[in-house]
Amino acid sequence: MNAKMADLKACFEKLGLTEVRTVLSSGNVVFSSTARSEKNLRSMIEAGMSADLPRSFPVILRRLDHLQKLLSANPFAGFDVSPQAKRVVTFLSEPNAANLSFPMELQGARILAVQDGEVFTAYVPHEDGPVFMSLIEKTFGKNVTTRTWATVQKCVAV
Fold first, then answer.
1. CA quadruple 115, 72, 155, 114: dihedral, nearest 10
2. For position 111, what pLDDT does the model report?
3. Low-confidence ranges of the chain (pLDDT < 50)
4. Which of 81, 103, 105, 119 is the most buried (most CB within 10 A)?
5. What stretch of H or E contains 148?
6. Residue 8 — φ and ψ, nearest 5°?
7. Tens-digit pLDDT profile for residues 93-107
8. Are 69 and 54 found together in one domain?
9. C-alpha closest to that of 151 among 79, 105, 109, 91
10. How many CB atoms lie within 10 A of CB 90?
């Protein structure tokens, strides 16, 4: 939402990435690359955005096969989650090694589990706004990106 998706797509294409597609308007970019190192790819994309866009953003990458396994495993299935609850996945820039106890709750937002570099949260919308983001940022910091379960499904389907 802080960058025009057409500009973001053009930036990725200028970097030599192929099959570039944006998903929704929240900075999701699906692409192909021959790069072997995710660290180098992340640095290249961040530098490209700094050069070509009015604003740069931290990049958090996940491979398609990783997202497919995540969807197949459905980490929410093992928890009692209200049908009205929204399910979100927070992608961490680095796997979390902290010894935390889950589930963790704040005003109806529950962090259910952390697996590798993903945090699985369910919440019922609250009158105080996105309380779940306060819980996530307090627990894992701000260098994260959060997507609904449906958005992850759309990214994989593209």
1. -10
2. 93
3. 1
4. 119
5. strand 144-148
6. -65, -45
7. 887 767 888 888 888
8. no
9. 91
10. 22
The two tokens of residue 94 are 């680095």
Tell whether 133 and 96 lie within a shared domain: yes
Helices (H) and strands (E) in the chain, counts: 5, 7
> Can you tell me the distance from the alpha carbon of 150 to that of 52, in angstroms, rounded to the nearest whole number?
30
Q: Residue 140: count other Cβ atoms within 10 Å of its Cβ.
A: 19
Domain tally for the chain? 2
Nearest in space to 3 (alpha carbons), one of 63, 62, 48, 67: 48
Domain enclosing residue 32, as ranges: 5-59
pTM of the model: 0.88
Query: Is the domain of 27 the same as that of 81?
Result: no
Identify whether residues 103 and 46 lie together within a single domain.
no
- For residues 53 and 82, membership in a common domain is answered with no
Q: What is the pLDDT of residue 2?
A: 66
